[in-house]
Design goal:
- The chain is mainly α.
- The protein has one domain: Farnesyl Diphosphate Synthase (Orthogonal Bundle), CATH 1.10.600.10.
- The chain is 64% helix and 1% strand.
- It has helices spanning 15-28, 49-53, 56-65, 77-85, 92-103, 112-129, 146-150, 152-172, 178-190, 197-206, 214-239, 244-271, 274-277, 290-294, 296-313, 319-334; strands at 139-140, 143-144.
- Strand 1 and strand 2 (143-144) form a beta hairpin.
- Helix 12 packs parallel to helix 16 and helix 15 runs antiparallel to helix 16 (319-334).
- The N and C termini lie close together (8 Å).
Amino acid sequence: MMPYAGSTIAVRPNVAMARRGRIAACEGASQPMASAVSPSAFSGPILTVSSATSWLATIDRRLGQLIPEPDGAGDILPHVVRSALCGPGKRVRPVMAMMACEHVGGDPADALDFGCAVEMMHASSLVLDDLPCMDDASLRRGAPALHRAHGEDAAVLASIALLNQAFATILRAPDIRADQRLALLDALTSAVGFQGLAHGQMRDLRDPAEARDEPGLRRLNHLKTTALFLAALKGGAEIGDASPEQEAALIAFGEIMGFAFQLCDDLQDRTAAAEDIGKDVGQDRDQRTFLDLWGVDEVRTRIRDAAAQAETALGGPCALADYAAGLVRSAYVEL
């Protein structure tokens, strides 16, 4: 698999090796929650995609700090939570939160904890999605799904713990002003309940075939994927004190990129191998997706075109557009 020629995004390494390294980094970084990351970790403006991806180690380290240590030998919940949270991943949502903050003139370090909260919410949703009563997945991020590794009881409790810790992180983040916390909580809760993940998963499980026309699929994709992207971008904009015009541009950008990412996911499910992407494939074989409406070639074209549309939404070339375009273009080439 080759990276897109115009991108500095590297193709993901072997998922099993990456998982061991990322969890080790997260475990080794565990500290009391009050510990803050110094803003000096982000010196100067972010000018390239490669500098944005260099934040991954900082994000992983902070995720480790935000999960409490076990309170005794028999306390396995923190370990199970780390297994769900600290496996290999692109950390797209925290990176986007930080880049959105900087895009509107803020300090990306201030958005680190909020980005980590969004990542916790994302990880929580994946744990639930994989359960036998949901998608019945066996593989996630190159390792057994959490319920396969630790049992369904531990998986459900870890998902709840991650959900709660996401909100706690926003409430306690040292670099978020008190007057911003309510807006950030609103952005995240809106992406989870009736306007986001839970509603999207319910519709994915229960919608009849006739509801999966183009408008229905667009609504489903918004709930399942775009809503959490928008939460990350809105939160970054709030922390960076964005103007209404700047926030509107970021929302338009998020709608485009969220849709493109869901198309990539649909394409992976039909065309990729499980060992290459670290998760089960063929999960949508009995469900209608945009591949059934448009065909593989048209879906690939829509993914490719999203890069230019995203740049236009942000008013021209910028680091955020380049980062997101590199991700979808890389997926487009890999698939």
